[in-house]
Amino acid sequence: MVHSVPTVTLNNGVEMPQLGFGVFLVPPDEVVEPVRTALDAGYRLIDTATLYGNEEGVGRAIADSGIPRDEIFVTTKVWNSDQGYDRTLQAFDRSIKLLGLDVIDLYLVHWPAPAQDLYVDTWRALERIYADGRARAIGVSNFTVRHLDRVIGEGSVVPAVNQVELHPGLPQEELRAAHARHGIATEAWSPIGRSLGLLDRPEVETIAKAHDRTPAQVVLRWHLQLDIIAIPKSVRAERIRENLDVFDFELSADEMATLSALDSPGRLGPDPEDFNRV
User: Which of 118, 159, 192, 251 has its CA 20 to 30 A from that of 228?
Assistant: First the structure.
């Protein structure tokens, strides 16, 4: 069964699918088949990055899919070692060539890397890419409120998206409130917090049983009902399809509150204030 995924309207009017497919840690020589499976299942948002080293394979899967280019939303990101105005422009040129595309749907600054203090210059390069029509939307990833305030204050374009670690164990309420004030869409990486044990929590399992769903489907549904964009990752075909089968049930207000109140165990990934790896 092919599912139709609802979209979120970004602050520049661009429509972005609310549920997508992430390819973090999928090896370059193994990425084509999972992306093909995702596209066949009905995913229309594919999220990659320079760091992942698999942009070329993602592009090949998209080209081979037979799906019209304007129906697939492609995100990639500039890595920390390529930050700075000129280096970011060069990194974008490499990414768009590897992907085999003329336009990127969403280009993100992958991390603020505050010790480098280059993310404002990097953002200005993204503004140039956007002004030239080479990206339909631009945004950031792993930015805190402080980082967002700075790029908004010193830049000329408000980010369309901030992609951050977000799940019931790290609901990011303060950050989401800041996004709402500025019209920034919230996107979640690691949305089901699988390695954190969230799916084994009795609260999640109880809700899943009540709906005859898996814990992962329940957690993804939580994201959707909070208007969060989510990009679960898997290389298993059955799980890829399962993660998309979340549009024909709804969590109650009490169930949503239960999941939002988990608020632990916290981060799977690093703190953006301290992460400066290049």
Answer: 118
130 labelled catalytic: no
Beta strand residue intervals within the chain, DSSP E:
7-9, 15-17, 21-22, 45-47, 73-78, 104-109, 135-141, 161-165, 185-189, 229-230
State the catalytic residue, choosing from 52, 107, 119, 130: 52
Domain that holds residue 249: 7-260
Segment 5-39, tens digit of pLDDT? 999 999 999 999 999 999 998 999 999 999 999 99
Distance separating the N- and C-terminal Cα atoms of the chain: 42
* Residues 2, 40: Cα–Cα separation, whole Å: 7
- Model confidence at 265, pLDDT cuts 50, 70, 90, reads confident
